[in-house]
Automatic annotation (TrEMBL):
PANTHER family: COLLAGEN ALPHA, PH DOMAIN-CONTAINING PROTEIN. Gene3D superfamilies: Hepatocyte Growth Factor, von Willebrand factor, type A domain. Residues 2-182 form the VWFA domain. This is VWFA domain-containing protein. Signal peptide: none annotated. Residues 183-267 form the Apple domain.
Amino acid sequence: MDVAFMIDVSGSIMQPDLAALKTLISKVISQFVITADGAHVALMTFADTPNDQYYFKDKQNIFSIQEAVQGLSHPGGGSKMVVAFKEARKLFSEAAGGRDFVTRVLVIATDADFYENDFKLAVNSSQQVKNDGIIIIGLGISSQVKPIMLKALASSEEQILLVPHSASPVKKDIAGDLISMICEVARKPEAIVSLRMEGSALQGHVIKSMNSDNELLCALACLNTRNCFSFNYSMKSQLCELNHTNRLTSSDDLILNPDSAHYEMVFN
């Protein structure tokens, strides 16, 4: 999976909101399996022009990418999204290290606050990205975010999330939601079942239970169930439990169970 983050650093984005966004992105990419054959990450910012860029061809290790995230600048200015989308398409090109044989996702972090004519041009430019086979997820930032406009840029109305802005009294960590949304896009073509812990089970997150002859059939059930990211399987009772989260995001709910094994879906 190739995931690129396209980040609005124009004047309408406040510094505290950008800082919160950096923290969010760092949490999200820390859950990716970043290897030569696994997930790859790219970054770009935009205002009047595209700014900081980290290409897929650059070092694909978590430390280098985290450093690039924390080093993102905030020049301010206007929000030229048409130019930004054009540059985003280049990010996914073979010359920039993009891979056309994997799932490709572009996460746009913006307040989507445009004048009407600029908005129409931005929507047309986003469609060109979608026509390339790239899935767009919208990430709304700042107190001035325009959800309706953000939905028009995303691949579907369901593929947007709003980041709690710095002045909001409600602080919600949406890292798990964004990870789930990205992984949901890639779950069928690039999922790998990984045994995490024998003698354990994740409790409190079961979305479906069934009898299954073996763990492979249980894994297939998870793969074909929306929002299933791990499962518990008991050889003794042949009970298959599908979970909507995993031990990485719900570690406190992993319990000892000698009759069970906990498996997770890993998305490369």
